[in-house]
Specification:
Blueprint (H helix, E strand, L loop, with lengths): L10 H13 L2 H9 L1 H7 L4 H26 L4 H19 L5 H14 L5 H12 L4 H30 L9 H29 L14 H9 L2 H19 L3 H7 L5 H26 L4 H20 L8 H21 L3 H4 L7 H12 L2 H15 L3 H42 L1
Helix pairs in contact: 1-8, 1-9, 2-3, 2-8, 3-9, 4-6, 4-7, 4-17, 4-18, 5-6, 5-9, 7-8, 7-17, 8-9, 8-13, 8-15, 11-15, 11-17, 11-18, 11-19, 12-13, 13-15, 14-15, 14-19, 18-19
């Protein structure tokens, strides 16, 4: 049965879903990823402190994933998504005031609730329905491609706004001038997120009933989902891939600290790698439905492993710009390929559509724990071991998780192969 939000002819609703899917994370994540050196400077933060902010976000999100997933199985996505965007945008006004570190911790906890509880499960379920039983790869591939394009475009606009409002060249601008210029970036981002919420509220199609009658009680849903073997393997796949995604946060910092790029050049590196995301995801979207989705995830982990090993072994150093760009592309390609598909394998994992929100919530509880442990760990390593050594240690961690994800993916492939063979035998007997 088709979800009214994504029914045929609702192209605008699909576009709004894609826009919302990335803009909701613009303030808590994208700005810090693209402008990491600047973000650390204007807020007077260490890498560890920034990592701790993401950890606070992750802890609140941990609970939001579970209960938000259950809610998404009961209420219409349109209202959930719009409300999430409105509340998230308000946090940008607080960020633009350059509050104390304590207030920043509260803010990131607040965002952990607004961006997940009402939003995450609704987006994934809507996308799964959009793809139907035959086109999950295309649905999730185009979703992440669109999200990547939105992130890259907003990053480029942010860099442009930052450079416009700098009264002097970046080399000569003092801290006060940089803070003022970055304030405009934050306020612009808040406005865009709020505007997107209005568009969703008034333009997204929705004839969805307030309650899904096919869904039973929350507790029984949770028990049913936890009995599915593929759910546990998807958890491991996502946690491994998400560590790779967390490492993309430091690309601009690597450019600044190791390659000695200035802050605008480093921000452009952060924007550039974001443009790889839609490119990779579009390619995956066209290829994935021609073969098992898990096949491409396995290739993604192999690619991510090769790229992370190049960085971990210290091959990429000063004045080796080509090697830097090449290695960055390899890691990012593997990371984004996996991200484009890891929820699409829910179909191959025989997870019922009616339990999508609950399954997404439980999977996300484990899968996105790098928000809690990876970000402060990365921050600690970068602060304790300045320069290339700290970055090497970070990529060594990614090597380990790439191997873990690869093993889980191979086990998942074996599981669905065994299931398919069993069904084939049963059909012949019948």
């Amino acid at each position: 049965m088709k979800d009214p939000v994504l029914k045929k002819g609702s192209f605008l609703s699909i576009i709004l879903l894609i826009l919302s899917g990335e803009l909701v994370f613009l303030l808590p994540y994208v700005l810090a990823r693209v402008f990491r050196p600047t973000f650390l400077e204007v807020f007077a933060l260490s890498n560890l402190q920034l990592g701790s902010l993401f950890s606070v976000y992750g802890i609140i999100a941990l609970f939001s994933y579970v209960y938000g997933g259950v809610i998404s199985d009961r209420f219409q996505p349109k209202i959930l998504i719009a409300t999430s965007l409105f509340f998230t945008s308000l946090g940008g006004l607080v960020l633009a005031s350059y509050p104390s570190y304590f207030v920043l911790q509260l803010l990131y906890g607040y965002w952990g609730f607004t961006t997940v509880f009402l939003f995450w499960g609704a987006m994934i379920k809507a996308t799964r329905v959009w793809g139907g039983s035959e086109n999950q790869g295309q649905a999730f591939g185009f979703l992440d491609a669109g999200r990547g394009l939105v992130a890259a475009s907003m990053a480029s606009l942010g860099v442009l706004i930052f450079s416009i409002f700098l009264t002097n060249d970046i080399e000569y601008a003092n801290l006060s001038e940089r803070k003022e210029a970055f304030r405009y970036v934050i306020l612009f981002s808040s406005f865009v997120v709020f505007l997107n919420g209005l568009l969703v509220l008034f333009l997204m199609k929705s004839n969805h009933k307030n309650e899904d009658k096919s869904v039973s009680s929350s507790s029984s849903n949770i028990r049913a989902v936890l009995k599915i073997k593929s759910v546990w393997l998807i958890m491991i796949i996502i946690i491994s891939a998400y560590v790779g995604y967390k490492v993309t946060d430091i690309y601009s910092l690597y450019a600044s600290e190791v390659m000695l790029f200035d802050q605008i050049e480093a921000a452009n590196i952060g924007s550039l790698q974001l443009y790889l995301r839609p490119l990779v995801c579009v390619i995956i979207a066209f290829l994935a439905d021609k073969k098992s989705y898990i096949y491409f995830i396995i290739l993604g982990f192999i690619t991510m492993l090769i790229g992370s090993m190049i960085f971990a072994f210290g091959v990429v150093q000063l004045n080796m710009n080509f090697v830097f760009f090449f290695s960055l592309i390899i890691v990012a390609t593997g990371t984004y390929a996996i991200r484009a598909l890891y929820f699409s394998i829910m179909q191959e994992g025989y997870i019922p559509l009616a339990l999508t929100g609950t399954a997404v919530g439980l999977i996300s509880v484990v899968g996105y724990t790098p928000d809690i442990f990876a970000t402060p760990l990365i921050g600690y390593l970068l602060d304790q071991y300045p320069g290339i050594l700290g970055h090497q240690y970070v990529f060594m961690i990614l090597v380990l998780f790439s191997i873990l994800g690869l093993l889980a993916s191979l086990r998942f492939a074996k599981l669905i192969k065994k299931r398919s063979e069993k069904e084939l035998v049963n059909s012949i007997i019948a």
